[in-house]
């Protein structure tokens, strides 16, 4: 006697599960320009590496003799696989089965995916479409009751999501209409991606939103431009394949958990490379802007800069990169937006980015150009100073190595945040650096009003005062008192950053989850 009959039934159940919602629903998914969940997982992971867990969970049907006659699989697929040879957990919504809603959900599956990532210290990638197991009004009728939000399963899910934010890298891919709990799962991540034409995200979809406001399409309510500019989602791409590539690249800079270190790659770019363009990158006329991103690309290893949150908090550029093969977090001012002044949303972006670097042991390189906090009515309406103080606290709480390169402006309270207060950080200034309590342009009018008004030619007098003060504000005068440690030739910056990355390498200390976790 053997167990062939049971093995045959197992294969039958597995085959039924792989049919997902059936040929019609699969065709509808493809017609909408979207892959199925199984195609997505196969594309995301290394070929042949997926080990599925709970493949045959679902709702079975039996004939009068008690034999299996059909199986509707759960609308969640999860398991383990590898990305670039490193193990990860992946969990995905199957929109072909009841649109991912609650009455087709086996709640234990996504919970176990989060638990597995946490217990085995593995990154988790969520592939999200639909409500992600959230509510449906039909659930009331199919279950005969209404659920109280947060009861047992829901609370466990929120708890695990919060714990994982401070323990393992979390990537979320929104690849369709994502609402309710699905939207929360998308936002509760270190890196989130939407597809531009085929996805949208909202707390509640257009039919619900129309009951309290104007009728809007999915894109008008929660399309990629709205969500990336609001900061709810980090990145948007044209195709699902690009979303998978972005997820893989993001994870390549991070450790598998806080208990390990980020991977180091062989250095392929000359650490002593000097780019002559850096000598003329900053205009002498301070009213003229320049492009910061080419400077970043020049200083880090070629082709390694991976920007995060490009459409949100735009006075500040944030991203991951490698310097001499070592992963680092890069932050820089962007003078094309409010001259680099920190807005409320820029401060929010900084807090989240600094928390990411601290959580996963990434040294920070800060290319500084900050004329201060944004001023004016809009700044006051958005509580810029409140968000600015939060950014100050986030920087102050970091322990990772920090190196600041002062490119141009450093003014005011925001300017003081070019490095963490109260501890050592390396700091270099370019000859174009310009700093003080506040910029001369506004301060002269206030401090020297009587002299300017009494002059025969106020404009000439104003220019005379400005020229005199500018000579006193030379970075060399500041260096005389050791208030700035080193003024450098911009072309030497890469060499010094490579040295910093190597000095920081032994200080990347794996840790355990503390009482304060990174928040989305």
Write structural notes for this entry.
- With 520 residues, the chain is of the alpha/beta class.
- It has 3 domains: 34-53 and 75-252, 2-enoyl-CoA Hydratase, Chain A, domain 1; 276-433 and 484-507, Alpha-Beta Complex (2-enoyl-CoA Hydratase, Chain A, domain 1), CATH 3.90.226.10; 438-473, no CATH class.
- It is built from 21 helices and 18 strands.
- It has helices at 4-18, 23-31, 37-44, 108-119, 137-143, 153-165, 181-187, 206-209, 218-222, 224-230, 240-252, 292-299, 344-359, 377-381, 384-396, 412-416, 440-447, 449-454, 458-472, 475-480, 493-504, and strands spanning 51-53, 58-62, 68-73, 76-83, 86-93, 124-130, 170-179, 191-195, 200-202, 235-237, 306-308, 316-323, 326-333, 364-370, 402-411, 426-429, 434-436, 486-487.
- Strands 1, 4, 5, 6, 7, 8, 9 and 10 form an 8-stranded mixed beta sheet that branches.
- Helix 7 (181-187) links the parallel strand 7 and strand 8 (191-195).
- The protein starts with a helix and ends in a 16-residue tail after the last helix.
Superfamily (CATH H level) name of the largest domain = 2-enoyl-CoA Hydratase, Chain A, domain 1
Annotation field: number of helices = 21
CA distance, first residue to last residue = 56 Å
Shape: elongated
Largest sheet: 8 strands, mixed
> What portion of residues belong to β-strands?
15-25%
The CATH architecture of the largest domain can be given as Alpha-Beta Complex
- The oligomerization state is single chain
Radius of gyration: 27 Å
Count of discrete structural domains: 3
Low-confidence stretches: none
CATH topology of the largest domain: 2-enoyl-CoA Hydratase, Chain A, domain 1
Helicity range = 25-40%
**What is the C-level CATH assignment of the largest domain?**
Alpha Beta
Number of strands: 18
Q: Strand pairing plus helix content: what structural class?
A: alpha/beta
Mean pLDDT across residues: 89
